[in-house]
Amino acid sequence: MTPLLGIALLGRAAITADAIALTMYVVLALDLSYAAAGVVVAVLTAGVAVGGPVLGRMIDRRGLRAVLLATIGAQLLFWLSVPILSYVVLLPATLAAGLLMIPVQPVTRQAIAAMTTAEQRRAAFALESVMGELSYIVGPAVVIVFAAQASAGTAAWGLGAAIVAGGVGLMLLNPPLRSAHEAAASPAARPTRREWLGAPMIAVLVMAFGITMLLGGIDLAIVATLEHAGQVSWAALVIGVLGAASVVGGLVYGALPRPMPTWLLLGLLGLLTIPAGLARDWPWLCVAVLGAGLLTAPTLSTVADAVSRLAPASVRGEATGLQSSALSTGFALGAPIVGVAIDAISPAAGFATAGLAGLIAALVGRVLMRRSTLTPRPSEPDQARAAV
Questions:
Q1: CA Rg, the chain, in Å?
Q2: CATH among 2.40.340.10, 1.20.1250.20, 2.30.110.10, 2.40.30.10 for 191-374
Q3: Burial classification of residue 376, based on how many CB atoms lie within 10 Å of its CB (0-12 exposed, 13-18 middle, 19 or more buried)
Q4: Which residues form the Major facilitator superfamily (MFS) profile domain (predicted)?
Q5: Is 0.85 topped by the overall pTM?
Q6: What is the C-alpha end-to-end distance of the chain, expressed in Å?
Q7: What CATH number should be reported for the domain whose range is 1-177?
Q8: Tens digit of pLDDT for each residue in 235-244?
Q9: Cβ within 8 Å of residue 53, ≥6 positions away
């Protein structure tokens, strides 16, 4: 577990900074607008969202090393060529890079599910969420400093080297993606998508989307609030407090004796986000985001845990790919939607919109879960016919 989490931290820290690296390249090296950079980031996000389930299904069918070899080659070619690409060529190349992004996060989650018992899994996923928070704190900051000291093109090369290093480390480690008894199961036992992608799994994916939509909106609302107060230079500190609180929350949650349902954690996260809009300067904003920060990593970890439990081992790669797609889509839509609320009303409306997104996702997830428990189970003869 230790080398797996170490390699995952390297790979995820680099991958979380890819949008920043591309933005700085478009703005600084190509001398284009931030809107043009936003289009590149949107294309990258769309590629990652579409490619996640496809790569996961390929892992289920072809194995981990074959997929890692293909994605490592694609990332190496893309990041080496970024500093010489024009904007017109950069767009399709970025889409291809997103489609073939090294699946560090989904593979880590699959390996955790395979390497832990049911009793250990919640704590392991909580630790994985903490590693994710650390990667978001470290990765973009390192790229920004590196680009400021050297150049945007050099920063892109360095980021690409880190992404490739994470993929190579994962390929050399080759962690098990199925436990011993799961690996012994027959490949013919692979269930159809209708069998496992039911109401419970859809509920978890909806809540995963709601979590990242909320988180993507919080960052923008923090910046808008401090810009309105003339204190935008403190935004990095407030976001750092939010990330540090998430790390603490993940560690505490992983040590608790009993789990909490995802819908409840997400609902509380949404409720605690809304009042943060009452803060008017950076000291109070640091205090206001503590509650949301403490619940962030625990909520993300419960989503990963739920996906691992609901997905059969033979389709776990595709399921974790869908989870990554839901998370990526939430991040992509959260900032624009919250931005509209901020422009139309006020920065406080940004926090309210982000919190309501989390509340709605929690409510939808709870309703879907409730409906699945109320659906009558088939009788034994029906089960026998279905098995035949």
A1: 21
A2: 1.20.1250.20
A3: exposed
A4: 1-178
A5: no
A6: 40
A7: 1.20.1250.20
A8: 778 888 888 8
A9: 318, 321, 322, 325
